[in-house]
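Why do we bother with holo predictions? Because pocket geometry can differ from the apo form. Keep that in mind while you read this record for FE2/S2 (inorganic) cluster.
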Amino acid sequence: MSDFEPKIIAFCCQYCAYSAADMAGSMRLQYPTNVEIVLIPCTGRFDMLFALKAFEGGADGVYVAGCLEGTCHFLDGNIRAKKRVNYLRNELKNMGVEEERLRMYNLSASQGPRFMEIAYEFTDLIKQLGPSPFKKKDAA
Ligand code: FES
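The structure, written out:
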């Protein structure tokens, strides 16, 4: 499975996570090309259907990245997103899909290096898990 290159979708809020990604780029920090960023105004806008659609579209892993708790520009958007992510992780588990395929991260706009670390950390995790079971079901 060493040649497996996962497809990862990262839903990033525009204020912190996306700015951190931007900073990583400005600092010329490389992060895995497996990660495809989808810009959302706030993680509070994250809908569970976004993740399910991403899995359906071939993603092996999905993460939501927002502002640090207490610093969401829309007050509690990241707290609401955390609840949705946790709910969906539980549903994935009930479906027999590894819940680790969905995660939430919080970071500040100045954490370009942390953005890079998260991208590596999550990509490595998904590489260990292998292709998404949704893909396997499609192929059957
Ligand atoms: Fe970043 Fe709400 S504005 S999580």
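Strands lie at 8-13, 35-40, 61-66, 102-106.
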